[in-house]
Design brief:
Layout lengths: L3 E5 L9 E5 L2 E7 L5 E5 L13 E3 L2 E3 L6 E3 L17 E6 L2 E9 L3
Antiparallel strand pairs: 1-9, 2-3, 3-4, 5-6, 6-7, 8-9
């Protein structure tokens, strides 16, 4: 499979997660305060909650339900109760398009 359009760069608000679904894979896309765009799995590994409803602080996305924060760069949880990482996807930018291949995750 190849990368497909997930959203437009212009659709992203800084530090505000956007949930998209590509080929049945829920992904949370975040433009951080440094204008870097990240894409991580949208489901918290602790409580199966949408991370896109959570809070961005720096390079982390915190689950609103139980407070586990995940690194936007590695997908690793930074605190309990989550202890399993979420996948991190490769992001490509083509003009205003944010492209993601939901079958390819970053090696971290």
């Amino acid at each position: 499979m190849s990368a497909q359009r997930a959203c437009g760069v212009s659709e992203l608000e800084q530090d505000t997660p956007l949930r998209v679904e590509l080929d049945g894979v829920a992904i949370s896309i975040v433009k951080d305060s440094d204008d870097i765009i990240h894409a991580i799995g949208d489901r918290c590994t602790h409580g199966d909650i949408s991370l896109s409803e959570g809070f961005v602080e720096g390079k982390t996305l915190e689950c609103w339900a139980h407070g586990s924060a995940f690194s936007l760069e590695t997908g690793r949880p930074l605190n309990l109760p989550a202890y399993e990482p979420v996948p991190v996807f490769v992001v490509q930018i083509d003009g205003d398009d944010v492209l993601i291949d939901p079958t390819v995750t970053k090696e971290v």
